[in-house]
Amino acid sequence: MSERVVPPAARRRRRPTKHGVVLSEELIVDTALRLIEEHGADALSVRRLGRALGADPSSLYRYFRHTDDLMLAIADELIGRTLRTWRPTGDWRADLRDLGLRMHAGALAHPRAAVLSSYRVTGREYEIQAVETVLGVLREAGFPDAEAVRIYHAFVDQALAHGALDSASAAMPKAAREAEAAVWRATYARLPADTHPHIAATARHLVADMARSSYPAALELLLGASAGRLAEIRSRSGHPTATPDSSAKAVP
Amino acid sequence: MSERVVPPAARRRRRPTKHGVVLSEELIVDTALRLIEEHGADALSVRRLGRALGADPSSLYRYFRHTDDLMLAIADELIGRTLRTWRPTGDWRADLRDLGLRMHAGALAHPRAAVLSSYRVTGREYEIQAVETVLGVLREAGFPDAEAVRIYHAFVDQALAHGALDSASAAMPKAAREAEAAVWRATYARLPADTHPHIAATARHLVADMARSSYPAALELLLGASAGRLAEIRSRSGHPTATPDSSAKAVP
DNA sequence: ACCTGAACACCGTTCAAGT
DNA sequence: ACCTGAACACCGTTCAAGT
User: DNA-binding: is it a keyword of this entry (chains A, B) (predicted)?
Assistant: First the structure.
C-alpha cells in the first residue's frame, strides 16, 4: 500500500493540465457528480471523467487510489449536501422522517453513488456528522444508548437499502424500465384464476402498487415501532435511577 | 427486436461445441451459478462463462439476448431453489418469517445475482410461483386483497433490498471488508466526546451492532405490524357482510 | 511535482464465415 | 442450425518518460 495519492500539503504546487485545468479533489468530485446528473450513472468512468476534466485519465490516480475511493468521496459529498439544508425541529419522529425521505431522494438523484455507498462506510467528514446527528436525535428523544444504536442501524440500513433498490431501478434505460412495468400488466395481470387464484384476485392492486416505492410505508412502520418502544421505556422509568450508561451493561 | 435467441423447438438440433459440450439454457445457468460460487461474483463474465463451458463466448448469445437476460434466468433459478425446499405450516407469520430468511440467505449465497435481481421483475416461472405463494399465505390468513398486496410488496422489497445490501457487502474482497470494520473501531470509536458526544457515548454499541445485519430485526418489525393490522381487521369484521372483492372497490 | 502516453489485461456485443 | 473468430468500442490501472 505505497503512497501514490498526493499528500494534501503538496497539492498547492500542482500544475495545470494540457487544457489549462487545475485538478483538485473537489473539482474531480463535482465534475463526477455533474457527469452522473447529465449523462446517467453509466457515464462515470475514469476515462470519461478524465475527458470531462480535460486531463489524462491516469492523472486521477494522484487524487484517488481507485475508482472506489472516488465513489466514496462522491458519496460523502452527497451526505453533506443532504445534511446542509436539513434543520432539526425538536420532534424526533418528524426529524427522522424528514431525514429518511431526504436520504432516499438523494439516492434517487445519484443512483450509482447510492448503490455503491449503500453498503460502505466512508469514515469521512460528512458521514461522521450524519451518524452524530441521527444518534443525537434518538438519544435526546430519550432512547437509551443500546436502543438508540439499534434504531439508528435499522433506520440507516432501511434508507440506504431502499435507496439503492429504487435508484438501481430508476437508473435503468427508459425502454427497459417500461418493459418491467409491462411484465406486471402483460404477464401477471393475465394469469388465469384456476392456476394462479391469488394473483388473479389481486392483479389490479399488484399493477398499481408495484409501480410505487415501498420506502415511505416502510419508514412509517419503523417510526411507529420506535415510538411504541419509547412509550414503553418512558412508562417504565418513573424512577430515573438508571445511570446514563446502565443500558450498556446489558449487551453481551 | 429481431429474434436472435434460439426458439425452444429448434434447440434439439444443436451441435456440440469444439470441446464436445452440448449447450443449453439449463447448462449455462448452472455453470454460471457454479462460477459465482467458486470464484466470487466478479468471476461472471460472458468471456469467462464461455471458457468454463468450453465454448466460444459469442455462442451464448444464441440462448440469451444480453448478459442481463442471463442474470434474470439465474435469479429465477435461485427463486426456484429457495421455494423448492420450503413447506407451509399454516401459521402465516412463521411461514413468512421462514420465507424471508430463506430469501435473504439465498441472496447472500449469490451476491451478484441478488444485487441485479433485487430491482427486476423476471416474469419467469419460479418468480410467478413465489408471488402466488406469498399472496396465498397473506390472503388465507385473512388479509383483504389491497392489504395483502401492500404487505406482499413491503415484505418482498425488504427481503430483496436487505439481501442486496448484505450480499454486496459480503461480496467485497476480504481485505476491503476488514478495512470497513476497522473504520468503526479506528475512526468512530476514537472520536472525542467534546466534538462528537453521541458517537462517543455509544461507540461500544456501534462497533458491535454495525457488524451485524439489520434484516432479522426489520423482518420482525414488519411481521409485528402486520399482525397488528390483522387483529384490527378481524375485530372490526364481526359481520362477514363484505363480499370477497369488496375491498377492491376502495382503491382509487 | 505533476501530468502524459503507451501498454496490459480485461470487458460486452456483432456479424460474416465456417461446419 | 449452430458455433467460431475476428473485430469494434470500450473498461481500470500501472509505470516510465516528459515538462
Answer: yes
Q: Which of A79, A60, A78 is nearest to A70 (CA)?
A: A60
pTM score, whole prediction: 0.83
Q: Does residue A168 contact residue B119 with C-beta atoms inside 8 Å?
A: yes
Domain that includes residue B74, residue range = 66-236
- In a domain, residue B170? The reply is yes
The alpha carbon of residue A13 is apart from the nearest alpha carbon of chain B, in Å, by 30
| Per-residue cell: A44 | 462515470
CA of B44 to C1' of D1 (A): 28
- Strand D: which nucleotides have any atom within 7 A of a protein Cβ? 1-6, 10-15
Q: Domain count of chain B?
A: 2
pLDDT per residue as tens, chain B (252 positions):
333 354 444 444 456 666 667 899 999 999 999 998 888 777 899 999 999 999 999 999 999 999 989 999 999 999 999 999 999 999 999 999 999 999 999 988 887 778 878 889 999 999 999 999 999 999 999 999 999 999 999 999 999 999 999 988 887 777 778 888 889 999 999 999 999 999 999 999 999 999 999 999 999 999 999 999 999 999 987 655 444 443 333 333
- A73/A22 same-domain check: no
Closest to A224 (Cα-Cα) out of B231, B226, B214:
B226
- Closest by CA to B218, choosing from A142, A229, A157, is A157
**In a shared domain, residues B79 and B61:** no
Hey, what's the cell of B211?
457488524
Q: How far apart are the first and last CA of chain B?
A: 36
Which of A135, A202, A224 has the CB atom closest to B135's CB atom?
Answer: A202
